[in-house]
Amino acid sequence: MDGSRYMLSEQNYTKILNHFDKHFWERKTDETNWSYYGLILDWYFDQSVLSIDYIDIEDFFDCNGGFSYWDSTYLSEQYSNLPIKKCLQVLENILNILKHTSVNKEQNLHMVKVVTKVLLRDNIKVINPENGYLTIKPNDIFDSGSYCNIIRVREGVLRKVLKPNYLNDDKLKKRMKYEYENMEKLRECPYILNVYEFNTEDDSYLMEQGEKNLFQHLKDEIEFSFEEKLKIISDVLEGIAFAHKNSIIHRDLHLGNILKIGNDFVICDFGFSKDLSMERSMKSSYTEKNNHLFVDPLAISDFRKLDLKSDIYSIGKIIDYVFTSKESTSDHIFKTIVEICTSRNKSLRYDSVEHIINEIGAVLENQNQKESKKFTIEKILNNHYDTQVHELIMILIDSDKLSNFIVAHQLSSFGKIIEQFESGYQIKIIQSIAYGYSEATGYGGWSNYDIFADISYYLCKNSQNREVVNIATSVLEECAGIRYSAKDLLEEIMK
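Above: the chain's sequence. Below: its structure in token form.
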């Protein structure tokens, strides 16, 4: 079977014919009273209004497509390996018989509905008026907007064309040309939809086909990982940053104008865009109110007020939507960035997309540091020593926060960590504890003395470093003056 992905697939065509064969293949009796199995579609035809205009079913098929017809052969055998148009005509003939026959009306209606659904999978529509013939046609319209249609051309390629009632609208014709020129200017960016050629005869242009827009993508998927969400906003930011660098502001950025293509997300529909490097802009050709949820509210009544910082606003709304649409909370790590992007005071918004990218990078770095620190703390809690543990403890010592850290995490076994350091570092650590433990204990009550008593006791019992033992002993003696449990530990090591 010939055709493209937008025409009837061989699999679906065969499935439909097999469906018909299942219903129309029964025992029959001919004029000689000889019984045999065959198609009963001729009986359906004879009981239809179609029989008024045609001699018999063979004549009907011949007049509508030039087909032969045998009731002794399966439909799937008779009409396989036909050109696309012929396949559609075969199905149209059969569906018209079902529509116009008086036999099994309810069952026939169901079969028409089933076939209609299957054909839609291949972008083929069944036009079924209440009265008259049913027709089957390829659905060439991929999508439709307020003033244009998106037409299928071939696999992966669409054409954006004005709707018939706007073909003579000079303002919209200029808009189409202006849109194409701005997108063509951005052709080097992988996150801007590709456009290929402009047809001056009908003011249309070819463009790359996306799989679906971002709104649909977010709706279809059950959940997204943080990395997947980050990929979406990163692609959008890179695309708009490139556009701004080339003096083009989008002015209509929202979920519907971001398309998924493979693993990337690309920006499309630059119909409202403005080239800042040129005197000409859409303000001289077409004006329209802009009222979608992602538009800058400061320009809600007149899109001509939209500027670079309006794109910044839309980016903020997109970031927020991506990170909250599937969550039970509105909070996320980029919330502050969103708030700055969407400030009602334009002067407080970021001055550039690059600034947003840098801010996101800083947030991620800080988050990574937090995650790294959390992981290192888990190592300490498990008495595991490595380079990361060493570095963290040295940082805590340098900032005089080691004792507070020990209290915060209730590290009674911290002596086991100290024991794994080299001798010189052991001294440095216990000195830091001796200097700061007394103040640190106050953050959690008297029982915190027990933590440092346990650490000191362990070192007194296990350390081979005499200086470490001496400092640990002095700490334990001070704890023993406050806590009976520490006094018991001191008495044990003094035996």
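The chain is about 50% helix and 10% strand.
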